[in-house]
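The protein record passed on below.

***
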Amino acid sequence: MNNSSELKKSIGFFPALALVMGTVIGSGVFFKVSNITEVTGSGGLTLLVWLIGGIITICAGLTAAELAAAIPETGGLTTYLEYTYGKFWGFLSGWAQAFIYFPANVAAQAIVFATQVINLFHLAPTLLIPIAFVAALSIYLINILGSKAGGILQSVTLVIKLIPLILIIVFGLMQSGDVQFSLFPAAGANSGLFTAIGAGLLATMFAYDGWIHVGNIAGEMKNPKKDLPAAITIGLGLVMAIYLLINAAFLLTFPISGLAGNLNAATDTAVKLFGEAGGKLITIGILISVYGALNGYTMTGMRVPYAMAEKSMLPWSKQFMSLTKAGAPWFSGLIQLMIAMIMVSLGAFDSITNMLVFVIWLFYCMAFVAVFILRRREPRMERPYKVPLYPVIPGIALVAGVYVMINTLVTQPVLAIIGIAVTLIGIPVYYYKKN
């Protein structure tokens, strides 16, 4: 290990595109269908929620890409908020990401990975935590070899993970199930339309999440001002198309009653389409998809504490800045791995992911507002990329984000309050370090 703080510029366009798509396409596309169909109670509303979620995410990505290109520094969201609002908000967003958001994402992906391994090989449920730990540890060990190693793994898993997606889409769309898409569908009997849309969007936001975090490695990209916005926008457009198609395939293959609340919906669909043997092969592809998402969150997440430590924002900043010879922030990654393993032993998949979405969208909305602030405050700032149709697209992203958060506060107040409380724990840490 060494303490050099010089990150290497080794990431090109395709690894960045793979990071966007690979981090976004993970467990959510396969395992949120159960939650979304359960809260919507309607095939048409399920597809509409995925469509709305995709449009919101593209608007968010187009908006955030302006910040990423104008401020191409390692740290991503944390750096954008600090530049716009000052050190306190930069620290708080970094704290939430470094010690809540990324570790919890790693925990959620590891839980899903372990659950599917247990189901695939008919292992004892008591092995969930050990398998989750081994999965997360193996990804950490790969990433301390440097960003190039993590980028290669991300590129490889992206290609492999598209195989089960494409097969399920192609063969699923040939099924004779009855699903109708409408811009004005009705909700199921268990909830009202707006409540169902809000709860469904909360779930889709997790499935679409990951798009902004490629900005965390901007300082290691060869040409961030050109490649970063392109990777975000092209990647998200492709992801939305994939999500709509695969959910249509799910709905054509199974009645909504067979999908709602069924965490094994993707595996059951694969078995129905391809038989037991084929279903197992597809499940292995799904495992690789989740493993790639786990890599994406580990690779980008470990760089947030590093960026904060560079600015002396954390206790033990020298340790958080420790790099391997290959230039990977090994200590930051180790701390996040330890927190993730604690979360694995405490939380359920949906509870963890819903809290994550609520907390991170608080800061996403601040980033959307930052685009307006900087346009007015620094009109001559160099902007290699500008969000199109300004201010409409940033406005859509902001309004949608506020709607999702308000809906969460109303429908899941305990979850929202816990997320806020854990985030606010960072405040005394900030003032301790400041003094």
